[in-house]
Design brief:
Largest sheet of chain B: 2 strands, antiparallel
Number of strands of chain A: 13
CATH superfamily of chain B: MetI-like
Number of helices of chain B: 14
CATH topology of chain B: MetI-like fold
Strand order of the largest sheet of chain B: 1-2
InterPro entries (chain A): SBP
Structural class of chain A: alpha/beta
Family (chain A): Belongs to the bacterial solute-binding protein 1 family.
Strand content of chain B: under 5%
Number of helices of chain A: 19
Oligomer: heterodimer
Shape of chain A: globular
Largest interface: A-B, 38 and 37 residues
Protein name (chain A): Probable ABC transporter substrate binding protein
Distance between the termini of chain B: 19 Å
Number of strands of chain B: 2
Helix content of chain A: 40-55%
Radius of gyration of chain A: 25 Å
Keywords (chain A): Signal, Transport
CATH class of chain B: Mainly Alpha
Radius of gyration of chain B: 25 Å
Organism (chain A): Brevibacillus brevis (strain 47 / JCM 6285 / NBRC 100599)
Distance between the termini of chain A: 66 Å
Shape of chain B: globular
Strand content of chain A: 5-15%
Chain lengths: 426, 319
């Protein structure tokens, strides 16, 4: 009996060892296989947004119809783990052939030779980069080389709850509003007894203080990416816009907003206005409460009419075995035909100029045109080679300023000093 | 592990004994072979997944990280930075507070509940299951539910407090309270696991001791302190070592309950060593520095565990 057990155990061991060995060897075998045969090619395409999966699958299918020798395998990784996974893959030399990239990562990946520059291909195939917003093309240009074809973009608007405005008999916000008007109405709409606030002022960058900093003539990072703009009085004033709203009790406190997110409060009718991105449109469109009770308009004007724009790009891994096929697919993703597919799904604003109408029509009850208009005057999302390092510090210090643990000036100046130190080491 | 080998040993000896001396030697050799084969998976796993990474981490703590696995030798630079980092002292303080409160309180409550659940009462297995449930629940789910319970404006706890006229605190966004709010959840979720070990320990105590004590006229309290507690010390020792190590490494509950990107004013004042490691290593891509934090934590755990091992002779009774 004992002998039988031990033999069984040993067999199990061998089986386990065999399995893991087999698993490891099968992955590279698959890729070399297709390379050797030269006919059938499988490309992996990594992305992080579940909402855009159907559109991406359809694009892959359409592409496969035209290029029957190329199969696209889509790998979905949730946003939270995406960059951790990509970093490990890049370190181990196993990046997917094509993948989504965002502004904060582009220089880091390009500078470390992880990406295939596509400037020559763009020229050879006569692709007109004027088809995309200039800010996005610039975002993905590094050292004079293009690295990505823009996929989509997002801009920021002022979302508001029509019902709360109606109840208070206040006219809806429009393009004539400026900062003062916003503050005035936000205070007017706040009703502490009912637990309703005029606006939400969380310490967020892209859908928050980045916009007011830029509108006030300040900046987050200089154009040469060498210095921080956080010690400029214009920047500090742009930050105070938000802390004033909290101090004047027109917004929940930073602590409250950390326990219940601003979007949650907005979706339950506790907040009359909030700065938020075009990416919220499809969520608000599906939500039972917000579907016909909210709308969106232009951000209130500061000294300058601007806001921040960000967008994703499709990039090719530098060590892909099939650079030619990968480029063909990226070209298709960035084409008008690809953009139309994304537009119809409503999940994101396609970057290809002219296809945005389709996106707007997918959700007719919101004035989505403001997001497209905004793109024309928007400034690129601030990035440097290692954005993650100072972005974390930015969150930490701004949280302190928002919570009143530090004055806005002190937090901003400390951030500038440390950020300059980090930038000088990049 | 120990329980396993002590169970196996008598059987093996039984198999060996009838043989002659010569074959006994051969048998022994083949026993050794099988024994090592059996522990090989664990041993290899231990080497590959625990020991080698420790060596690597120590090495990496002397390097400067450049992303994508590129690093260069930096000597003691990371440790110099670490000593100057105010976050280190906050993290050390919080880790110690957390450990000093969570471990003893968790053990005391677990013993209390284990003794209660060691009685013959109706539906005992239902109670045992209920107390064990948090252990098999994912930390993420636990944290989400407690986040809601703790919500100062819309949460259940403050609602109940409010209904008896008490204004509840901002549990997870007030820097002065957040750490203790996390400790409450940690103790709550550790009870089930500890309780099972204590239950096993309690059932190993012979009934005859209690019968003898009863004849001598001892009450239940006296019996608990004179019989139960001393004979439970091996279990208490085991639980205190494992929960101490766990407490030093606390991360998931804090990360999930306080959130790192929500702009929570309490996060910085509530960070622990493992949290400091995570934010540096995975959020700012500062691998070398994070490795140095991990090494400091490793040394702390080693020292405290060594002290515990030394002290066990004084209070742990093996019968």
């Amino acid at each position: 009996m004992k002998k039988l057990v031990s033999i069984a155990m040993a067999a199990l061991l061998v089986a386990v060892a065999g399995c893991s060995g087999g698993g490891q060897s099968s992955a590279p075998a698959g890729t070399t296989d297709s390379a050797a045969s030269g006919e059938k090619v499988t490309l992996t395409y990594a992305l992080w947004d579940k909402n855009q999966m159907p559109a991406m699958e359809e694009m892959a299918k359409k592409f496969n119809e035209k290029n029957p020798n190329v199969d696209i395998k889509i790998e979905l990784t949730p946003n939270k783990q995406y960059w951790t996974k990509m970093e490990a893959a890049a370190t181990g030399g196993t990046l997917p052939d094509i993948f989504w990239i965002n502004g904060p990562r582009i220089i880091k990946y390009a500078d470390n030779d992880m990406l295939l520059p596509i400037t020559d291909q763009i020229k050879a195939d006569g692709i007109d980069l004027n088809n995309y917003p200039k800010a996005l093309v610039d975002l993905y240009t590094y050292d004079g080389q293009n690295y990505a074809l823009p996929k989509d973009f997002d801009t920021i608007g002022l979302w508001y709850n029509k019902k709360l405005f109606d109840d208070a008999k206040v006219p809806y916000p429009d393009e004539t509003w400026d900062w003062n008007k916003l503050k005035e109405v936000a205070k007017q709409l706040t009703d502490e007894k009912k637990g309703v606030w005029g606006i939400a002022a969380p310490p967020y960058g892209q859908d928050g203080f980045y916009n007011t900093i830029l509108q006030n003539g300040g900046y987050i990072i200089s154009e040469d990416k060498k210095t921080s703009g956080y010690d400029k009085p214009e920047t500090i004033e742009g930050l105070k816009f938000w802390t004033d709203l909290i101090n004047e009790k027109a917004s929940p406190t930073a602590a409250q907003l950390s326990e219940t997110e601003a979007t949650q409060l907005f979706e339950s009718g506790k907040i009359a206005m909030m700065y938020n991105g075009s990416w919220m449109a499809s969520a608000f469109h599906k939500n039972e409460y917000t579907k016909d009770k909210v709308d969106v308009t232009y951000l209130p004007k500061g000294k300058e009419n601007t806001s921040v724009i960000h967008g994703l790009g499709n990039v090719i891994s530098a060590n892909t075995k099939h650079p030619k096929e990968a480029w063909e697919f990226v070209k298709f993703l960035g084409s008008k035909e690809g953009a139309e597919i994304l537009a119809k799904s409503g999940a994101a604003i396609p970057a290809f100029n002219g296809t945005q109408d389709t996106w707007m029509q997918s959700m007719p009850n919101f004035h989505l045109k403001i997001f497209i208009d905004q793109a024309a005057v928007a400034k690129p999302y601030p990035i440097s080679k290692d954005t993650a390092k100072w972005a974390k510090l930015e969150t930490e210090l701004m949280t302190k300023a928002w919570a009143g643990q530090m004055s806005v000036e002190d937090a901003s100046k400390e951030l500038a000093q440390k950020m300059n130190e980090m930038l000088s080491q990049e | 592990m120990n329980a396993m080998s002590s169970q196996l040993q008598p059987e093996m000896h039984a198999a060996v004994q009838p043989k002659t001396n010569k074959s006994l030697n051969r048998m022994k050799r083949s026993d050794w072979f099988w024994a090592y084969l059996m522990i090989a998976p664990t041993l290899i796993g231990l080497g590959v997944f625990y020991l080698w990474p420790i060596v690597q981490t120590i090495y990496l703590s002397f390097t400067k990280w450049g992303g994508f696995g590129k690093y260069k030798w930096a000597g003691l630079h990371n440790y110099e930075l670490l000593l100057k980092d105010p976050n280190l002292w906050i993290a050390l303080k919080n880790t110690l507070i957390y450990t000093v409160i969570a471990v003893p309180v968790g053990i005391a409550i677990s013993i209390f509940i284990a003794v209660l659940l060691n009685q013959k009462i109706k539906g005992i297995s239902i109670y045992r299951t209920l107390y064990f449930l948090p252990v098999v629940t994912m930390a993420a789910a636990v944290a989400m539910v407690w986040r809601w319970l703790y919500n100062a404006d819309y949460g259940l706890i403050n609602y109940l407090l409010g209904s008896i006229g008490i204004e509840g605190p901002r549990w997870i966004s007030d820097p002065a309270i957040a750490l203790y709010a996390v400790i409450i959840v940690a103790v709550w979720s550790s009870i089930g696991y500890n309780m099972v070990i204590f239950l096993a320990g309690l059932q190993g105590i012979p009934r005859s001791y209690y019968e003898a004590a009863e004849i001598d006229g001892a009450g239940p309290v006296r019996m608990f302190f004179k019989i139960t507690l001393p004979l439970l010390t091996p279990s208490i020792f085991f639980v205190s070592i494992t929960s101490l190590i766990g407490a030093f490494q606390v991360f998931d509950l804090i990360y999930l309950m306080l959130g790192s990107k929500m702009g929570n004013p309490a996060t910085e004042q509530t960070q622990t060593m493992a949290y400091l490691f995570f934010t540096n290593g995975f959020e700012s891509g500062n691998g070398g520095y994070a490795a140095a934090v991990a090494v400091v934590l490793l040394v702390m755990i080693l020292i405290v565990t060594a002290i515990q091992m030394k002290l066990q002779k004084k209070w742990v009774h093996y019968d």
